[in-house]
Design goal:
single chain, about 100 residues, mainly alpha, two-stranded parallel sheet, 6 helices, globular
Length: about 100
């Protein structure tokens, strides 16, 4: 809720009420999560322009997870942005990760 891109998206979808945004912001949601135990997996391309521009702020999310004692695996990948090749390279890891928590 601090990046200009996030503010533009959330206000465009949800209106100007910032309190409503908290139900859709991962950094806010992890602070109040009361569900079953889980672990979050995040893959990030180091060459992602939104990361370079300071719009994604993964460090804020990782810190929020740490404060909330939410296990997180954050993997930063050299040479990737957030395009097709990035997604196709790491999607299998994410499917397997979700399967663990969905008991599949």
């Amino acid at each position: 809720m601090k990046s200009t891109f996030g503010i533009k998206c959330l206000s465009g979808y949800l209106g100007e009420d910032i309190e409503q945004w908290k139900d859709y912001d991962a950094t806010c949601l992890v602070k109040t999560y009361q569900g079953p135990p889980m672990e979050i997996l995040v893959d990030q391309g180091k060459d992602d322009q939104f990361l370079k521009d300071g719009q994604l702020m993964p460090d804020v999310f990782v810190e929020s997870c740490a404060r909330s004692r939410m296990p997180i695996v954050y993997r930063l990948h050299e040479g990737y942005d957030h395009g097709y090749y990035f997604v196709s390279t790491f999607i299998e890891d994410h499917i397997k990760h979700h399967m663990k928590f969905l008991s599949l």
